[in-house]
Records
---
Amino acid sequence: MPYKVFEEYNMQVTDDVKDRYKRIIEDLGEDTKRDGLLKTPERAAKAMQFLTQGYHQDPVEILESAMFEESYDEMVIVKDIELYSLCEHHMLPFFGKVHIAYIPNGQIVGLSKLPRVVDIFARRLQVQERLTEQILDCINDTLKPQGVAVVIEASHMCMMMRGVQKQNSITTTSGFRGQFEKIETRNEFLKLIGK
Ligand SMILES: [Zn+2]
């Protein structure tokens, strides 16, 4: 399934989720007949489908659609890719930046495809650790570069708004394959992204 703007909502899913949201809002003590809340269950149902659309998209297909033979074999870095995802423990957002680097091995990929791969995995219920690995493995297995590196820095609303209420803490995860397992290559990448 190609990556495209999410416009078509599954009517059956929207209806089912809408009814459940209505009950949830009532259980939380609200009046769903209040003016501002009349269409909220439907809006929430659609928003959640949008935020989890990654289940129906194939990141491998996205990468394969824009791979080109090229002899360039220096490090390629795309940094500061915006990230918005939902933690699978609380279904609350976590958000931040993703930095990706790879060293080509005969093939390069269209640069805009890397943020799309991030979105496809991020628009699912996630933990930051698995998200990091999935992006890493997808690029490694599909593009088969000499090496790939992924760093994610994110703030988690489930930490900021509830529980420990550590409002300024940022969680960093990283993963390295191939050439990036060498300390010099890894350090060059970290330096280039300002870490
Ligand atoms: Zn959480």
---
Amino acid sequence: MGVFVDLLLVFILVTVGIISSATAAKVRHLKWEVEYMHWSPDGQEGVVIAINGQFPGPTIRARAGDTLHLQLTNKLHTEGVVIHWHGIRQIGTPWADGTASISQCAINPGETFLYRFKVDRAGTYFYHGHYGMQRSAGLYGSLIVDVAEGEKEKFEYDGEFNILLSDWWHKGSHEQEVDLSSKPMRWIGEPQSLLVNGRGQFNCSMAAHFSNSSAVQCKLRGSEQYAPYILKVHPNKTYRLRIASSTALASLNLAIGNHKMRVVEADGNYVKPFTVDNIDIYSGDSYSVLFRTDQSSSQNYWLSATVRGREPHTPPAFAILNYLPTSASILPISPPPPSPRWDDYAYSKAFSNKIRALPGSPKPPQTHNRRIVLLNTQTYINGYTKWSINNVSLSLPSTPYLGSIKYGVGNAFDARSPPDRGPPGYDVMRPAPNPNSTYGSGVYMLKFNSTVDVILQNANALKENVSEIHPWHLHGHDFWVVGYGEGEFRERDAARFNLRDPPFRNTAVIYPYGWTAVRFVADNPGVWAFHCHIEPHLHLGMGVVFAEGVDLVQGLPNAAIACGLTGEMLIKNGTH
Ligand SMILES: [Cu+2]
């Protein structure tokens, strides 16, 4: 009898175990091939970096707690590749962060690399190339993490759509790279098209009849690679629109004609909901907004994205909000929604200031251990135009930092730490009298579990009266955006930091001639890039590298470090 009861108990426990593991986290296996393909993102054929024959790459859909097991084969033939999972903090797997020279060796042509990591938190994310100018070449896609089985979102909706915004040049990414690296530098210029889910129209405009321009009216069948993305909706429902921007350059404003949007998520974190007519979205940002289909169902509406912060030479991107049962081929009869003036920074700042954490969100520590001020300047090195941080232009080493720091390999990068402050007395409002800087590959070594404040200080660029927008993105962490200010940051400005309800994010913008303060806890062992998400700016050195707790990193795969000095180390140890 006793044995029977015991067996029954074992049976029940095993059954419960099987049921709970069936609903719990999954391992999702994916096999990707990355290759160049001919494609017409905006009606003019060019080459894009495609994944499994798709542009943009496939959307990854997973649940919080799942593990992605993604075998990536590089079929580019003549160049390396890596993929960064933007917004995924890579807790315990810093080697899977997908940053060439930082977290791993670039994957060589013909090689396969296994990215294995947990998507620990629900939210709207994306992925993109993090090597050279491969984001500009079209290497990106969406990564959507749903709440874990049995959990609920903190807002309700009847359906959802997903939009990935990007920008597109007719000049190929290799030529762009040569242009940027030339003396004198040739700027890549404004993109020819903005894309919504990889679709834009360069040869024609769907809204031509509303503008005075000479643009011709599009004649689209709907099956073209550049036909607009259609959002099919039913009347009187609430929809969630997930939006992310993987642009190489453009800052954007997005609106849905005649519809208001309620912002509920930013960078994978809940925000205190607020309602707006349109939202600003910088490269590296992601949002969820809710909108209600409360307009006349006998017509369709525009969804449009326009350029902000740079004098626009790029027409807006359009998608169509299609009210069923109206045909999707009927163009909206109202003009595209108005967008704020490209240089209305007060408008953008007001939007930034509306973004607050939802009550119950993680709170920032009330004190900091270290404060680093990063002065962003446009500089020269031997006549080459660069971007520099505290007068150092980031030049990535050939041996990735993660392996060289973990194994104590000497001479892999500059041993000297980069400065915690810019040059004293620097006037951020004027071009520098001496705009020269130097290359550097030094690392900001952060004390494990310490609280770090970073002040991103903007300045005048090389040209007088020019100061640009820079969206800064941190790998491996979220930070609290604790304050914005004008002019030069002074220590007394810290007294005004918002430590009550700052948004928890991975990307924060600095406005022209202003500063932005972020606070984070250095609690994720690894080596992490922190950089301007404008790809040509990063390429010209606009970034820094943080490292913390690297001795605690476990399970570094050989494939991540089999290059440069760590590659030599593997050969010497006979493990390669
Ligand atoms: Cu920038």
---
Amino acid sequence: MKHIDEYRDGALARGIAARIARDAAPGRHYQFMEFCGGHTHAISRYGLEDLLPGNVEMVHGPGCPVCVLPAGRIDDAIKLAMCPGITLCTYADLMRVPASGGATLLRASAAGADIRMIYSPLDALRIAEAEPHRDIVFLAIGFETTTPPTALAVSAAHRKGLRNFSVFCNHVLTPPAMRAILTAPAQKDGARIRVDGFIGPAHVSTVTGTRAYLNLAEEFSKPVVVAGFEPLDVMHAILMLVRQVNESRHCVENQYIRLVTTDGNRIAQREMAKVFELRETFEWRGLGEVPLSALRLNNDYADLDAEHRFGITTVRAADNPACECATILRGLKKPADCKLFGTVCSPDTPMGSCMVSAEGACAAHWTYGRFRDRAAGHGPACSVPACLVTTLVGANEV
Ligand code: SF4
């Protein structure tokens, strides 16, 4: 398939891997975080870690919106959905994310709550127009990628004067979470994640542009390479990071030049700025309270804010103590370090948020069986399909 197969060429992937192995200095350990769940998924799916030399390690980050939504916010959504006259609309992935005491939206739905799965905020708007006798609440989650559609839905509802539509807003921002990873206090055992550089998110960066990471790279002296989601994109980004570290540079580089620009999507940014304002702080699963890391509707749209309309005051809820999602989302542990992984917790029976979404680290590890290769002591294996097409953006640079 044109424009996809080009980025899945096995021979080119092995060629880039050889460059990484050649450039990675012996005796030096490189530890890079892929912030985004889309990259985690690609790394697991194509077995990219098996292509890397032993001194180049990838650490999974918190960039999966389903994974980072804390249990207390899902408790709120369930309470709302159980109210007579309220219909809660949300994306399918959220239905199975555990809240307090093992509750989920799916169980609430089975118990009689009116919860509907939608593909877009505009679906919720259409339901509100078609059913004026019900209060339609859109449970909005996601990073900068999914925020513009929510902004458009809010603007449209405002313009149409829809009084039975509101948004329970849980949109979060990428750069503050990267900052939180770098500044997180050490754990009780003294553990703190070391990150030598980030693979920056792909889709998020189409909206924000690479400019969004400049301050972070400068302040913490950490290189950031924005990369696409295909296996060669990720391998190329790792090579770019290795070279930056070797040269003691901390630049924001753009591997995903076919879609990402320096300034991003100005129209989307304008729509977001019109509707949202920054929250002073917001709880993330795994990261705890992160200042200036999330959005809420601004005063002009307060009547469409479900928190305002229904008086929601979130109470922090404890996660399942046996679940290691919090440490995995901070990069301190890997999925297979969790005792529940693959025993009581699997995509069919998720005990934590990281096993729900395809972008979650636990779900990706489980689905592509990477842990089995290692547990069985199998040697490195490249699962990148050996496609015939040989065109690769940036191939000349590697
Ligand atoms: S395997 Fe399940 S219980 Fe363990 S960290 Fe992952 S999601 Fe949580």
